[in-house]
Structures are given as structure tokens and as C-alpha cells.
Amino acid sequence: MGLFNRHKTVYVDSDILVVGGGMAGCGATYESRYWGRDLKVVCVEKANIERSGAVAQGLYAINCYMGMQWDENQPEDHVRYARNDLMGLVREDLGYDMARHVDSSVHMFEKWGLPMMRDPETGRYQREGKWQIMIHGESYKPIVAEAARNAASEVYNRIMVTHLLMDEAKPNRVAGAVGFNVRSGDFYVFRAKAVIVCAGGASHIYKPRSVGEGMGRTWYAPWSSASAYALPILAGAKMTQMENRIVLARFKDGYGPVGAYFLHLKTYTQNGYGEEYESKWYEHTKELVGDYIDRHPVPTCLRNHAFLEEVKAGRGPIRMVTKEAFQDPHKETVGWENFLGMTIGQAVVWASQNIDPKHTNPELITSEPYVMGSHATCSGAWASGPSDCAPADYQWGYNRMMTVDGLFGAGDTIGGTAHKFSSGSFTEGRIAAKAAVNYVNDLRNEQPRVSERQYEDMKKLIYKPLENYRVGRNEIVAGTVSPSYILPINGLQRLEKIMDEYTGGINTDYMTNEPLLTRGLELLGMLKEDLDCLAAEDFHQLQRAWELHHRVLASEAVARHTLFRQETRWPGYYYRGDYPKLDDTNWHCFTLSRYDRQSGEWELEKVPVHHIID
Ligand SMILES: Cc1cc2nc3c(=O)[nH]c(=O)nc-3n(C[C@H](O)[C@H](O)[C@H](O)COP(=O)(O)OP(=O)(O)OC[C@H]3O[C@@H](n4cnc5c(N)ncnc54)[C@H](O)[C@@H]3O)c2cc1C
Question: What is the whole-number distance in angstroms between the Cα of residue 374 and the centre of ligand 1?
Fold first, then answer.
């Protein structure tokens, strides 16, 4: 008991609490101030919003811009595009809502100082593809963070949020969050009328291709630790499409992005023998998914599928043909600069492996799966839609509010809306914030009620890994091994192994089935029991411990959803060996889950997909 009292408790009251200061969180913080001039708006971030989240290192392109001012695309076009890419299953109301507002966000970025590339002939933003525009984006995140800092009443950096607080008077209403400062160890109780979760996606739930000393190198940010899913799941929010994990074809060993290469440099792929291979798999893929293979552009997962089949047929590796494009000095420069903006490690890998793309066509590889809601995938929380265009059964209150009162989300947190990327996540943060301000105003003087017992119980739970270490270290037998505890890194590797081997990771070529998933869930259950014995020697390890808790819960959601959906909807992302085909008759629907914290039980259901755009 003495140990828990050693940590000072800091109380912060606010009207709107934004959890996570990445792209969506900065958008939410900025817009909360715009609509809520007199409200207290607090943003809490486990790193430092200046350089946090998936955009920390900068980006080379903004992947979602309609260009409505030049009539380049309309929001309806984007809905069709995302629907096609996700094999028919997206929340069209949410996607449309984001798309109609995204251009205004990009215009603000430019106003705040983000250097945009422009087409010298037309003066318009330089397009990389139909939806992407090119930026000099090394300072993208600091620029966006500055706007959020100016808007917030306070930004609390270095605080890892571990749990949401619930209202004592209304069981299904959120009332704030708790967490701890990863440097000082202070315990924080944030009481708030509305909470907007913007805590990013999930990497490191599957065993990565980069292991051992390369382990920190993953495609999605290694610090994206699934809080965006675990926090709402623990609060009883419904989740959707958690089975829709994404796999990406990227440059080998550095996970370097390929978009600019395909779209701007007009490169293409070949098998190990220099042959075009995608067309070879046309009939085979049509057998599995029917007409979806004839859609244009070919859905991302199906392009992965041809890649994987070609490699399995023994004709790997798959290479990107760069030798032709790199003869053009301008394209060569663009090719290298593409990495300087966001994945400099890829250039270092090539240098270390004697790969000059002007003379050698570099290898591609498919990544381990990731869970996220903003890329070519749409896992996340089930949210209420906009009042003017959401179908009746997708509306139960305020825009982007989850199935828990007062709990909002944006970016990777929200499910059903793929292809938001950085600009769309920021925009969704703005949309959620506007609705959260309305929610707070409608509450009038009603205050959330949080009992001292609730957060004191959480405090004990949160610091338990420190206590486990303090006691267990007396029994250390070799190195860091103690029979009484497990360290976060050991738990993480165990999680990654289970997910990899049982729920369709790289080890099985993304294949799984009911017996594998059932066994995987049993093993996840045992891992969850052992998390009681997690040990942390310092606050940094305490953060790792809670990141692991969040990853395990999100992983369980992935496994349960994958088991529930009895079809293979996205070959190339994962395969159900027992249901190898897409089944529109029975599964043209969303999957929803709800976790009951008291019983530990999950409920799953199907919900119709409404098409509101022709
Ligand atoms: C390698 C890569 C390349 C990409 N390329 C592009 C591109 O070229 N163009 C483009 O437009 N988009 C790109 N994206 C997508 C874009 O980065 C994401 O869509 C966007 O960042 C998602 O926004 P978000 O706010 O949901 O998550 P993030 O921006 O990741 O923000 C999440 C924030 O929450 C914080 N957080 C997490 N857990 C907690 C917790 N428990 N407590 C407190 N804080 C927490 C994190 O530290 C982080 O700051 C790319 C992403 C990656 C990873």
C-alpha cells in the first residue's frame, strides 16, 4: 500500500479531454477551441505533441485531398474509391462527412506554414496520384501541433492514459481518464464532460519481420500501442471491423513507402525472373472474390494477394523496377527525397546492402499485419454518424460519439472509414470536437461524477507492475529472469508469437481457421492471466507494461472478429482456410463486438452496410 501512496495525485478538470495529440488529437483540440470559446480544453499525450504519433518524422505527401476548388474530385468519388478498396464495406456516411471537410483542413495547414508543392504549369497543388498531393513535410507535425498548443487550455505531455473513468450516476457515460507521467511517475486524474480518444493505431501486435536488433523497425509507428482500441473496449464501447487488419507491400527491410514510386515515378513490379505476374492470378482471384477483381483501381488487398501467390509459387522475390525511372535525374532525386521526408532508414538499408536503385531493382515484401482505422483499412470504434446523411440505425446521438455517452473518437480510433490518412484524421478530429462541444453545451451545468474509490482502485492497479518488480527482483535467477514476474518485452514477444501463429501472421502466410483461432484465443486468455504478474523496474517499463495490456486486449478483439466473420473478405490481408471465398450473401455486413469488463465476455453481431452513394 505504501508504494502506491508514494505517487502524487494530480487532478485536472476540463470540459473536453483529448486523449492523444497526434493528427486527430491536434484537429480535435484546435476545433474544440473554435466552437467552445469558453470551454476548458485539455490535450493529454504520452509523448510530446511536437513530434508524436505516426506523422512524427514527417511525411512526403498528404494522401487525402479532394481538390474541390479545382473540381478535381468530389466527396462522393472518395466514398466510391474507399468502398471499392475495402471490398464493399465502409461507413459511407462517415467517409462522406470526412471527405467534404478535408480540403479546408489542408488549406489551414498551408496557412500555418506547411510548404506545399505546386504544379508549375497549373499553379495547383502537385498531385502524386488521384488523391495525394505532395508536400515538403518534414515539419508537418510541429506545424499542426503549434495550432493545437495555441488552442488548448493546457497540453499535458508525457502522460500515458491507461483507463477511462466512468460516471458514477450514469453507468454508460464517460467521465474522464486516468494515467501516469512516464517521467515523474505522478498519477493523473482527468475529470471531463466529454472525452475524445485519438490514440492512434496498433503496431507490434503481430510478430514483425524485423526481429532481434531490428525489432524497433516496423512499418507503422512502433509507439502506436493500441490504446485507441483498448480504452473504448474497456469502457464497453462497440468496436467494428477489428478483423480488417492491414498488410502492406513495402521495400524490404526498411518498410520504405512505395506510393510515390508507383504514382509519381511510374515504376512497376516484376517477379524474380523479370516477368509481369499480376495478370497470371486473375482467374484464380476471380474464383475467390468474383467481380471485385475487375474493379478499378484493383483493391489493395487483391494486389497483395497476387504478390503472395507468386512468391508461394516459387517465383520470388518481387522487385520494384526502378532502374528505368532512375535514369531521369529529376525522378532519381524525387525517389531519394521520398525517404528523406519520412523513412530515412530505407535509404540507409539500401546503402548497407549495396542497392543503388539506378542499377538494382530493390525487393519488396509484405509486412506483418497492423490494426488501424485511417489507412487502407478501417478497424476501430463504432460511431454515430452525421445527422444530415447517416442512415437512422447509424445515429444515436452526436457525430463521432461511440456507443458510450460522451465518448468520441477520431483518426485511427474510429472504424468503418478507410483512407482518411493524415489530413482526414485531423479533419475527423475537428468533426468529433464540434459534436463534443455541442454535447458539453447540452449538458449545461451537469457535472460528471467520479468516486474517489474508482480512481484509487485504478491507481493501485496501474502501479502494480512496480510492486511486482520490487518483490520479484529478490528472486532473480539469471540476468533479468525471475520466476515471479514477466517483463513487458517477454509478454510482448509472447503476444506477437500467438497472433502470428494462430491469427494469420507472416509465419502462416496470413492463413488462419477456426481451430487455430480457437486455440489462439485460449493462449491469449492465459497471457491475460499472466499480465497480473507484469513487472516494471521504472516508469518507462511501466509504460511498456500498460502498452502491452492495451495491445493484448486489441489483439483479442482482432481474434474474435476474425473468428466471427466466416469468409475471406480481404485475401492478401488474411485468409480463413475454412472459408476461403468472399461471401456477399451472408457477410456483406459490418461485424460489431462489445466487451463486458465485469464478465470478460464478448458479444458479436452483424450490422447492415448501407450504401448511400450510388
Ligand atoms: C509509415 C507511415 C506512413 C504514412 N504515410 C502517410 C502519407 O504519406 N500521407 C498521409 O496523409 N498519411 C500517411 N500516414 C497515415 C497518417 O500518419 C495517419 O493516418 C495519422 O497519423 C492517424 O492519425 P491519429 O491521430 O489517429 O494517430 P497518430 O497521429 O498516430 O496519433 C496518435 C497519438 O496518440 C498518442 N497516444 C497513443 N496512446 C496514448 C495513450 N495511451 N495516452 C496518451 N497518448 C497516447 C500517440 O503518442 C500519438 O501522438 C502514414 C502513416 C505511417 C505510419
Answer: 9
Name all residues whose Cβ lies below 6 A of ligand 1. 19-25, 44-47, 52-55, 59-63, 160-161, 198-200, 219-221, 223-225, 227, 257, 342, 374-375, 411-412, 421-423, 425
With residue 81 as reference, give the H or E element that holds it.
helix 75-85
For 136-147, what is each residue's pLDDT tens digit? 998 999 999 999
Three-state DSSP class for residue 281: helix
Atom number, ligand 1, closest to the C-alpha of residue 60:
8
Return the pLDDT at 3: 52
What's the gap in Å between 2 CA and the centre of ligand 1? 38
> Per-residue pLDDT tens for 159-211?
999 999 999 999 899 999 999 999 999 999 999 999 999 999 999 999 999 88
User: What residues contact residue 298 under an 8 Å CB cut-off, 6+ apart?
Assistant: 278
- Tell me the pLDDT tens digit for each residue of 484-527: 999 999 999 999 999 999 999 999 999 999 999 999 999 999 99
Residue 425 Cα to ligand 1 midpoint, Å, equals 8
CB 370 within 8 A of CB 202: yes
User: Rounded distance, CA 543 to CA 465, Å?
Assistant: 10
Predicted confidence at residue 252, as pLDDT, reads 95
Strands (E), 457-553: 511-512
Within 96-140, strands assigned E span: 133-137
Q: Are 204 and 370 in contact (CB under 8 A)?
A: no
Q: What is the distance in A from the centroid of ligand 1 to the CA of 381?
A: 16
